[in-house]
């Protein structure tokens, strides 16, 4: 079953582009990454899913129900951690969390205690006195206290130190094992890689790829580096499938995706001294998506 189903979703802010014609699905039980550079449209997509803003066109379903029509009902089963958390600073942490819990028809007291212990959060402090990281923890507890079926996290790790990030990821994995589906938005590749099964890559308001992390690594460019006996013309390797071509005297390097025999034929046209064919690391694969089109 698809927990999230987004169909041709577009959101414009007046004349400004928010997101354009976005479609993807998140299956039940997945930890799904949503990655793209700042301003790509991750928050806009998430805010539309939560009916905090309304689509210009297209639609989205959560738990098989239209996000706009069934917003109040759907929200009971969603835990949301926004990119930036704002609170009434005068309140104590515990009072804020009890207030949040009052929206659900559940006794959340035990879970609040467990989460606070796990994240090392002092429930009796005033929010005003908390560091940025501790405020973020309040947001995490707030998002998870009702044991939601779907957890939506928008850039959740900013402000958390590495040890706390690790604990937070463990917590998310536990929730996932218990059955929660997770949508995890981030611009940090390494954390998405650590946690997620699949990713949607968003760039300039459009989805450029939806793929398993493992497949992204497999079916991708290979990196070629060739050393030749005599200088070669750059144009020799200007062919379909070649990207990031660099030719400097007797050294040529490029990324290639396509039939390897085709590129090997080109290579046999020159006298080579050495040849390296390597897999790009995931960072390089993503950077390719991040680069702006001319
Ligand atoms: N309230 C708004 N009014 C006008 N334009 C907006 C508004 N909110 C977002 N945008 C624009 O929509 C586009 C997508 O922004 P969005 O915040 O969704 O990106 P993002 O991927 O979440 O990036 P970030 O990580 O920087 O938050 C950007 O070009 C942004 O300037």
From TrEMBL:
Gene3D superfamilies: P-loop containing nucleotide triphosphate hydrolases
Keywords: ATP-binding, Nucleotide-binding, Transport
InterPro entries xrefs: AAA+_ATPase, ABC_transporter-like_ATP-bd, ABC_transporter-like_CS, ABC_transporter_ATP-binding, P-loop_NTPase
One Pfam family matching this protein: ABC_tran
Organism superkingdom: Bacteria
Domain ABC transporter: 4-229
GO terms of molecular function: ATP binding; ATP hydrolysis activity
Family membership noted in the UniProt record: Belongs to the ABC transporter superfamily.
Protein known as: ABC transporter ATP-binding protein
Species for this entry: Neobacillus piezotolerans
């Amino acid at each position: 079953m698809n927990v999230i189903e987004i169909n041709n979703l577009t959101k414009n802010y007046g004349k400004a582009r928010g997101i354009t014609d976005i479609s993807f699905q998140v299956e039940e039980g997945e930890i799904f990454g949503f990655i793209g550079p700042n301003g790509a449209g991750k928050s806009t997509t998430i805010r539309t899913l939560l009916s905090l803003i309304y689509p210009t066109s297209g639609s989205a379903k959560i738990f098989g129900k239209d996000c706009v029509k069934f917003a109040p009902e759907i929200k009971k089963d969603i835990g949301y951690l926004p990119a930036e958390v704002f609170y009434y600073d005068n309140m104590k942490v515990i009072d804020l969390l009890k207030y949040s819990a009052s929206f659900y028809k559940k006794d959340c007291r035990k879970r609040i205690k467990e989460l606070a212990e796990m994240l090392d959060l002092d429930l009796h402090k005033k929010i005003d006195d908390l560091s940025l990281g501790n405020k973020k923890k309040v947001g995490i507890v707030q998002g998870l206290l009702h044991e939601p079926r779907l957890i939506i996290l928008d850039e959740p790790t900013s402000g958390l130190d590495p040890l706390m990030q690790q604990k937070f990821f463990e917590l998310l994995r536990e929730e996932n094992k218990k059955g929660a589906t997770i949508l995890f938005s981030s611009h940090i590749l390494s954390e998405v890689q650590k946690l997620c099964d699949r990713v949607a890559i968003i760039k300039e308001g459009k989805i450029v790829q939806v793929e398993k992390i493992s497949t992204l690594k497999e079916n991708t460019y290979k990196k070629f580096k060739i050393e030749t006996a005599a200088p070669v013309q750059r144009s020799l390797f200007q062919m379909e499938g070649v990207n990031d071509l660099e030719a400097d005297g007797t050294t040529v390097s490029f990324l290639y995706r396509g039939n390897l025999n085709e590129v090997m034929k080109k290579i046999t046209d020159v006298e080579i001294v050495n040849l390296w064919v390597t897999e790009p690391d995931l960072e390089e694969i993503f950077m390719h998506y991040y680069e702006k089109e001319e």
